[in-house]
Amino acid sequence: MTPSLDAYVMLSSALFAIGFLGVLVRRNTLVIFMCLELMLVAATLALVAFSRFNGTEDGDVFVFFILTVAAAEVAVGLAIIVALFRLRQTIQVDRLNSMRH
Amino acid sequence: MDFSTLRSLAAGNAWGSVWPELSLGCLALFLLVLETGLPRSMHARIPVVSIAGQLGILGVLLLNFDTPYRATFNGLLMLSPQGQLMRVFFLISSILVSLLARRSLPWQRVPRVEFHHIVLVVAAAMMLLVESRNFVMLFVALETVTVGLYILVSYYRSNPKTLEAGLKYLVMGALSSALLLFGIVLLYGVAGSPALSGRTLEAMQYGGLRGFLEANPDNFLAAAGIVLVLSGVAFKIGAFPFQIWIPDVYQGAPTPVTAFLAVASKAAGFIVLLVLVTEVFAPYDWLVGPVLTLMAAATILFGNLAALKQNNVKRLIGLSGVSHAGFILLAVVSVSREPMAVGAVYFYLYAYLIASFAVFGVMTVLAGPDDSEQELGDYAGLARESPFLAGVLACGLGSLAGIPPFAGFMAKLLVFVIAFKAGHFGLLGVAVAGVVVSVYYYFGWIRTAYFSDEAAISPKTAERARAGAGLTLGIALAALTLGSIVLGFYQGPLGNWLAGH
Amino acid sequence: MEQIAFIFLSALTLACALGVVLAKNAVNGAMCLLLCLAGIAGLFVQLHAYLLAFILVLVYAGAVVALFLFIIMLLDMQGGQAWRFRPAQALAGFAAAALLVTGLDLIAIRGRLGGGPPVGQGAGSSLKLYAYQLFTAYLLPVQVMGFLLLVAMLGIILISRRISEADPSK
Amino acid sequence: MIAYFLGLPVMVQAVAKGLAVIVVLFPIAAACSMAERKVCAWIQCRPGPNRALPPLFGWIPGIGILQRLGVFHLMADGGKFLFKEEPLPDHVNKPYYVLAPVVAMVPAFTTVTVVPFGAYLGSGGAVVPLMLANVDVGILAVFAVASLGIYSLILAGWASNSKYAFLGGVRASAQLISYELSMTLAVLPVFLWVNEPGSAGSLSLARVVEFQSRPGFWGGSWFLFTMPVSALIFAVALFAETNRQPFDMPESEADLVGGFHTEYGAFKWSLFFVAEYANMIVGSAVFALLFLGGWNLLPWLPLADLLERLHHATGSALWLHPLVAGLVSVAIFAGKIFLTIFVFMWVRWTVPRFRYDQVMKLGWQKLLPLSIANLIAYTVGIYFLQQ
Amino acid sequence: MNVPLDPLLISVAAPLAVAVAIALGLPKRWAVKLAYAGFAVPALVAIDVWWRFASAAKEVHGYAFLTNYSTGLDRLGIGLKLGLNGISLPLFVLAGLVGFAAGLYAIQSKAERMKTYLLLLLVMQAGLMGTFASVNVFFFYFFHELALIPTFIMVGIWGGRDRSYAAMMMTVYLTLGAMLSLVGLIAIYVKTGATSFDLMILRDALASRPLGEVTQTHIFGLLLFGFGILVSLWPFHSWAPLGYGAAPSSAAMLHAGVLKKFGLYGLLQIALPLLPFGAAQWSHSLAVVAGVGNVLAIGLVTMAQRDLKQMVGYSSVMHMGYAFLGIAAGSVLGAGGVVMLMVAHGFSVALLFLLSTTIYHRTHTFEMDQMGGLAQKAPVLAGLFVAATFASIGLPGFANFWGELPIFFALWNFSHGLTLVALTGTVVSAVYGLRAAARVFFGPESEAFARVAAVDPPADIAWSERLPAFVLVAALLFIGFWPKSFSDGINRALMGEPAAVVASR
Amino acid sequence: MAVIPVERRSLTLVERTYFPQIMGAMKTTLKHLLGPADTMEYPEQRPAIPPGYRGVPTLVKDPHGREKCVSCQLCEFVCPPKAIRITPGSVPEGAGIDQVEKAPQAFDIDMLRCIYCGLCEEVCPEEAIFLQNQYSMSGYSRAEMVNHKDRLYELGGTLPDTHFKWDVKKAAEESAGEHH
User: What is the ipTM of this complex?
Assistant: First the structure.
């Protein structure tokens, strides 16, 4: 007995929602990034499930692009974080407010 | 899978049809080659190569402007007159950004060639973005644009504000990408579902999805997907609930990049939105319409009210850009009832391009090394130091405010006409209020530049103002000003196009 | 059998995802993310997307999370800050939680896609099919992706290079 | 018997396979550590460890040779690691500190499952590879799982809460990530060649061997000869990936005491040790499969031919029995692995350690461009070859 | 289409061309010389056109000199269509002459940054000519804004007290008005369904198929408030005295004299003929607001003013009340009176602004308490000022008389009470006008003025100031004595639709 | 001293890959690998001790079995690490060395401190202390590593002493009167 498509979609939306929640509530930029990754991965899970259950192939191909993009995004993000940390000694979002007057 | 189908699939890849993007990419690579190949002393010339190359591409593009509607790359892309128009748009913006960067980069201790390289790549990706008719292509192009912009935003990395802006932009951009992505996934999944009628095997294609949506005009998951996709795009254009990143990022980013973000990135977002709304989500107008309407109203109000109390010019221009996004949204909202709105969006974008770059040009010239700290007060008495810059600034701001004889007026007029035709009276009221409020702060800026006593201008700013824009940038700014005035009353051959073909 | 595996993997995935959000220490968060990814890779295997499962492990688990850990350690955030409740955050959290619950509810109640059996294998199961898709129909995005990676690489080098080394004359 | 095995429930099969791996790999890894000491000694013109002898065993004839080879040292070491007091320093992050050595074992032992270690002749003389899990994505699986090895180093370094360990962990992770790139790129030409158009595309390692067993010049020659640059890059990257000298910056005793395992002792330390050797074994196996023709004895002499000739020469049909064939192939393959491991050790005691910046420079500025150029060259070359 | 010889286009293009030339960096000597031409050409064209109008070939709705230039948006009904009818002609002439006067006055004034000043004034002049020459509603609006922007800038840079605040006030108020009227115009454009901004087409379309009554009421309301704000309809008038008080004299002359008439002109030329029902719906409220608010309340406020320029500013607001009353009356008579009043008021208020600045140059203050007895030192100036005051009160012999009189008659038919109010207003205006003249020129010399005069003995009005003043006075007298020169055309133009208004009531 | 700058020869392309060098090194190590071990298997095989070897310090007796040390304590004085401790005592009756006033009651050399410098041997006027061939000293405790007098003599044994100091002295003493 295989799990149904609904189960996969539910799972991936739950993951997505958890990631979204994390982005909203966490203040540590690194954790925020992780939560963003979680959201992207949730999307890939749904894609693969849809691909398999619907018999369409584009979804699987899309996963490749998503993973690549996610990796690039993380790399750039971490580079910025490190550079910023060098200058400011913090990566807490609420302390990054030099531009509020 | 046998080879003949493969060959036929591969044959769809008509590389010639994306020659502007290709040549931009090659030009970008060529810059890197030059950087490694040439001695250090010659590096200062490389930006010139970049600008000359872009001008060349622009020239060829204008000569070969006419393009029929034609799908290419197996339906990933759609070539169209609008696409050509946007290609020109992005090329002009990238040329201007390169010009501004040539002015601004020497003040910073950062490498220069890479900046131009990234600008070129981003411009090419933007072209692909607006031409794409497939969600995979859309996502890839969009991400290329955003990743490029992440780097450009945080380019002046010795300035913590710039990096902070880059980080904020990155987090927000990634969040919006994720929302967009999940929306796409939901749409893809629903559209391919064998359990539903109108199921399509090409769920990533706009056309296929459209067919499905028409067959199922009230599917819940599809609606959820559409809302997510719309919010993803709304992030990119800075529409209301998703505009929070704008002021900080605009302030922190290098001024040329701010211009790029404000103009080209936003335009790309709008064209994507327009294409989605007209070509894909049309059967869900019951959902898209109200969502966008609310968004437009809130965007106009928020942008203008928030801009009122800003003192930093980049924040000001950023928030005013939010309100412009609202005006364009007004046209997008109307598109389902009034096809002429398409032309209006394009015209508005062009008017916005011309005016914004004029303003950003002046900002760049006056910015100097610490370019995230320009206050309104720094412009006091600009007219006395440099009448030319003050004139350009005034014309740009006038156009942004939507005052005749500038192109901005024409753009707003078209939008209003269309909104009226489409019957969005409430939105129109909001928009009118928005214009009046916006005149207040735009005029406040002009007032500072023109009517203040000369004592207020800081010596350094004054020095930069007297030094002027330099020949090339000066010509560009003059051309922008002229264009903004001429387009205000003479649309010439554009006219028919605007009126809806 | 598959059902049990699915339940196990999804429970693991969800628990670890929550772990990422709630972990006080960023290192714990990263490890949770790693486990979560492993769970998803397992789910991929269940969906017969072996190739994607390995790519996921290779790219995400092998590189991305490692990078995260690396940076966390580099910045030495051992202390870490859990999320303290402040009004604005509480509001955001509440909104997000509400969104989560309603979203899930809605998808559960209204998003029924019909419990049909799997129709196809998906391209992720066969390497060859996958590669053909990438290099014919999706060749253009692949090329664009190349530019994306180039730009990202350049950018990372630029941003993380020490400022003192930047040649002002350049 | 095979049929019986295949008839067992999947879980039991998996457990059995896992146990087999542990039972086989653990001693081999341990033996390698001994071998290392002996090789080191020989290179330094010493006899090496040769003293230990369990009490009361001296009377067995011939045991002296085993004693001279230091076999009992191995046992003594194992016993010592097992029974030594387990230190758990107070300042460490305990869960991760304990977890790290366990994590180190995972990739080492998991990758083995997709590595074929021999072949037997099935019906009709077809060569059937022996492996625990025949997956389509073989090499990808190896790389994917091997890349997880980094976590043990990072965790060990970080959890130890000591600057030596931390620096070691950081160095190790950076090094691993850096060299993974060139390694993957170096392997690509091999698979490009193997997966010629029209063939069933596969990343399986067994297929690479099969390709190298084909008749004809290109088929019969090992990839070591046709792709020396790839082989070189792969080998160098392998050294770096396994943290072997001259790339053992992460644990360089001179400046970091012991790197990431500074704070470890007793059994936990031995796990790292075994994992390192297990990694080496898997790496050598992959190298042998990719570039040294796997279980073929000599270039242009595939296993099937070899057995056929032996059959003709001796007239005994025994050579064609699957079991014998399997044993022969496993022996050949094991020989190659040991040879490769020997080279590892040989290099270790020859070449001095790099400086860390040299390691990074070599990885990013030399190997990576070289492997890219290599890939391009072979892509073009293979294209013209197949025209 | 004889492009180069089209007088209307020339009247717009000439000042613009001079402005562009100055902007491109013409030396000051040449700039000034060229500016004379820039101001003179429109004036000459205006006179020429006026001269030829009666005999010119008329097309539908009484338009003459029609030319059409495509700007690319023909399909949206946007194009540069120039032409004049009986209503626009007087205003066109007004614009030409007042512009000429203001230009002359500006050129001889010793303003700082003369080139920029002239440039802006020239742009303004071009905009004014274009506004009244445009048949296309889009360009009508466009040229108005073109003329408006220099006003803000001129107030901001060359203005007097509170210039920055005044400029801001003006900008926001006038933008609000302009936006409201723009929305109204768009509404007409869309609702008519003719897809054209061409006034002639709009009229044709609406004549055959009028808009619904509710729509008309709404749109007229928009236009009324939009244009009303532009014309300083009470209670949206507060920008006007402030702005005029601060504005440099030439700008004030052009704005108060000509540009402000845009709103009234818009109501007359566009709103009334296109939206007759709407006009009828709004007429009562408009009349009450204008009568009580503008005429009476502002009249009393004007009386309380001590600052000469402010007083002139307020008086102009008050006189606009008459114009509104005339429009509200809704008859050909009233409308014709409004046109005459617009022209007359344009000349007279421009003259008043000019003269008050001239006075200022002699007294160095605008406070009337600190003046007195200037007549002895500057008799010609005194004469001119008294003439201007008489004109503004509406005494016969001056053009204003022919404006106010028909309005009163028309108003009498409309409402007796308001007529009385309006007449009271006349008295009020006579009081403050004459009192001002008396305070400034006659009576004993105030201490302050004596002190000023001792340092800088005031001369009589110089020729450079006299010439523009004479032009204006001449125009006032000419119309005062020969009103038929304009009224014929006005009446012919108004005969069509406003008659329908009357009929519909 | 003149400084002569030496131009470093730039490496050739092949050399820059370091391959020849590495290969050369590998060859060398291989040679050693295959060659015989240079070490000796110690307990079974012992190295030949060369003459003059400085081993463990020991006390010696003369060929007549008499104690040579006179407890002058020069060695204790000169010993750099202060490894020697001597407790002087009177000479027991009947030792056959009546000419001598003192003999060591206790003579300890702490081998944990001894640095095998040989100064004690050098300084000994009576040639009683020698660093001999003994090189292996081991013990299970610190106390064991202190060589007492007995042990020292046990290690030192008797040396073939040809000039019989005590006898010469005795003879001199006996014949002293003859000359007077």
Answer: 0.82
